[in-house]
Amino acid sequence: MGLFSRSKPEPAPAAAAPTVSLTKGSRITLTKSAAERPTIEVSNGWTAKKKDYDLKALVRYRDGRLVYVGAANADEVLSTPEGAVRHSGDIRTPGALETITITWHPDIAAIALSSYSALENGTGSFREYGVYVNIANGEQVVGLAASDSSADAAQYTLCFGEVLLGADRTFTVVNLELYSKPGSENRIGYKKDAVKMDIGPVGQQK
Fold first, then answer.
1. Structural domain total, the chain
2. Phi and psi at residue 79, in whole multiples of 5°?
């Protein structure tokens, strides 16, 4: 990544403001839906133009299984086997956002949401480029932003947080804002029930 030069980011059109903005360490349980299988949608955006970020989800099942959902690596899948977590596919069109749709499922315990800075971005912090994740639950929108001003320009993965699936068909969003080590290409992982940076497999090109 360090071989790519950094161009000055151009401002992008402002995104719709979230109804709730979570700070690091805070959490919120989303309004319970009447649906038998409630659904939320995650979108990954940024304020700088001519940049590309890859949205990823690490799905942790109650039996300990882990599934990487994404569209940027050969060993990722666009959907979990039962279809509860679905990725929209790799998006490179200016103004379009990658999304992940999450439908509540009794076998899933948690989903860790991360964003990866694509090679063509060069170096530059997530905060500088205004990267964020919005989680929409109907008209309710929860925003997780890259707010850490000390984040290193060579940190390429940001885990925004987790979505915890409750037995009562609820989603609880937790802001983690964890960054990878400078220069690390390893993805996030789970150690027991906790998200850990840089312990997952190295990213594989498509």
1. 1
2. -150, 145
